[in-house]
Amino acid sequence: MDLINIGFNEYFSALFEEFRSRGFVPARVINEQKELYTVLTEKGEIHARVSGKFMHQAAVRSDYPAVGDWVAVMHEGDLAIIHAVVDRLSSFSRNVSGSNKRKGGGITEEQVVSANIDTVFIVTGLDENYSLRRIERYLALAWNSGASPVIVLNKSDLRENPEEAVSEVENIAPGVPVHAVCAKDHYPETLEPYLKKGRTVALLGSSGVGKSTIVNALLGKDIQSVNEISDSVNKGRHTTTSRQLFLMDNGAMLIDTPGMREIQFWGDEEGISSAFEDIEKLISLCKFKDCSHNGEPGCAIQSALESGELDPGRYRNYVSMQNELARLEERKVKSIQLIKKEWEKDIAKKVKEISKRDKSRFGR
Fold first, then answer.
1. Digit-coded pLDDT (tens) for 78-115
2. CA distance to 72, 261, 301, 347, per residue, from 37 (Å)
3. pTM for this structure?
4. With DSSP H G I counted as helix, E B as strand and the rest as coil, what are the percentages for the chain, rounded to 5?
């Protein structure tokens, strides 16, 4: 297999030189299931796992390989051992808060959903799943990823005039391509311009929006299982249970991901600013730089809200994400402190074990 065809361009080739000199070969992660991976090398597809040294040195979840990553491997029989992850060109991440058994509880960390992607298809359904506020959150995450976002409104057959929804979404995502498709009944040909040889596209969206249906339509075969929407709650079940990279006949690559019921923001100010560029522009027009937008004279935000220029729901979503970002930064600092503390405990424990072993061995 020619690795250039699966995205191993000059950027990654240059980065890989240091690994090649140490006897490693490049591979791309195409599937991730807990501690077992599937990778593509020049010799083809093979199962893989990370080395013991890699596992020991990985401090946080984002250090581990993700689907789309390029990794340095060595073959051990029918298994490839992953020794390092090549620096990512782009990555779509979300915030995962909770326990970390290896480093203590209560850690907030980054989960890389997909890596080295060129385009993000933000998929939503034109049914009860349709939400402008959710699309705004996905857009902020997409802009942070380093990839180019494209909004795909699936299930266009459920709307009498889907173009109205397209216009509505274009208003909150200026400059971002928006396409209405019905992947269940038709091949989504409007998505073809983004699917070029050697390019990687990740599909992201909530459960039940039809990501797997779109993948099947683009691949021309039923490779992903599809579940119907629950009539009682109008929500889809998690059809895709693991991240998977698929090769298209034309050389493009698709990454399907499990549906996400809740998107916790991970990123920085830049992603939010890109998703809410209109609001940031209004803020710059306020009379006072420290305007709280709560009754001060010359407040451009209040003026836009009163005139109807700015949608109150969009502004509330912007404020909510800004507050979420502030809390995230606080939790990041605490998490780093906790990880450092636990790491120091690990080192102290190992030093004590070595000292005890030396005393028993040499009698001193």
1. 899 999 999 999 988 877 665 444 444 456 677 888 99
2. 13, 24, 49, 29
3. 0.79
4. 40, 25, 35
Residue 92 has phi, psi (to 5 degrees) of: -100, 120
Q: Smallest Cα–Cα separation from 313: which of 127, 94, 134?
A: 134
Locate 311 and state its tokens: 């949608």
Per-residue 3-state assignment (H helix, E strand, C coil) for 157-219: HHCCCHHHHHHHHHHHCCCCCEEECCCCCCCCHHHHHHCCCCCEEEEECCCCCCHHHHHHHHH
- Residue 275 has phi, psi (to 5 degrees) of -75, -25
Backbone angles phi, psi at 16, to 5 degrees: -80, -10
pLDDT tens-digit readout, 113-172: 899 999 999 999 999 889 999 999 899 888 888 899 999 999 999 999 999 999 999 999
Tokens coding 149: 């976002």
Residue with tokens 């998490």: 335
Query: What is the Cα–Cα distance from 200 to 246, expressed in whole angstroms?
Result: 10
Is 188 within 8 Å of 217 (Cβ atoms)? yes
Contact status, residue 113 vs residue 264, Cβ threshold 8 Å: no
- The tokens of 91 are what? 């990555």
Domains annotated for the chain, with CATH where assigned, are 3-90 (2.40.50.140), 118-256 (3.40.50.300)
**End-to-end C-alpha distance for the chain, whole angstroms:** 58
Closest CA to 176 of 113, 256, 121: 121
Amino acid letter, residue 19 = F
Determine contact, residues 177/151, Cβ cutoff 8 Å.
yes
Whole-angstrom distance, CA of residue 36 vs CA of residue 50: 8
**Pairing relationship of beta strands 104-115 and 253-256 according to DSSP bridges:** unpaired
